[in-house]
Predict the structure.
Amino acid sequence: MPVDLATVRRIARLAHIAISDAEAPALQGELNAILTFVEALEAVDVTGVEPMTSVTPMKLPMREDVVTDGEIEPQVLANAPLAEDGFFVVPKVVE
């Protein structure tokens, strides 16, 4: 699906990027090239390929999953404008 000039201008506006009328055709070509590349990637058969987090094999360090609250509730709540029963009190924003 090729990108037209109106779409380029809309994308630039949504991204808060000021572009001139002279720059729009060049950006149109770049966006169309990107979309063509993505379409080519969709044709690649990735059946059986495991997802990876890095190009080098690595094992992330694991730690025991233990809940620790730091036991500093009074110091944290001291910063609150209003606290009640160990919780921050905030104004209601949804009716």
